[in-house]
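Supplementary Note 3. Input sequence used for the single-chain structure prediction.
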Amino acid sequence: MRITLRAGAFVYSGYRSDINRWLAPGAVTVSLWHGLPIKRVEASVGNQMGQRETLLRRLATAGRESPPDFLLSSSEFVTTCFSPAFGVPQDRCWELGYPRTDHLVSSPSNPPAALVWDEGVWKQLISARRVVGLFLTWRDDRADDALDESLVRQLTATCTRHGAILTYKAHYNVAP
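The predicted structure, written as discrete structure tokens, is reproduced below.
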């Protein structure tokens, strides 16, 4: 509790509610949200043009978390989508790339050690002529990806027939 009270900044991956707001007054918050605007997120979920503003709708939005002070963004386009969704001004969105996949293409010969789960597999990926990435998203409280082992095996066989390697990286919220 003492460390939380003394902290000047909090960096979090998912939700500001992970930080005890009563023990973190005045601290700067940085959200490392790593999604892409292929689906509606945060304030944009259920936000459809032309909907009447009702008391019930206002109550639902009143309980939302406070926006972060700063938000990770992968590009200018993502910033324009996520700025209103998260309630963060565009100048407070840090366009630093996409952390789930940038390391696969930016410096393949020298990735951070924490990202290389198996040296042999890594060497196979960087020496391959074609690599197909399967990086599924996660939604709300769903704990499993939308595919099973059989589908992954079929995709692998298809990639192999076409001279490619399939690499799959689960979302960190997906059950093992």
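The first strand starts at residue 9 and ends at 12. The helical segments are 2-6, 55-62, 76-86, 102-105, 119-127, 149-161.
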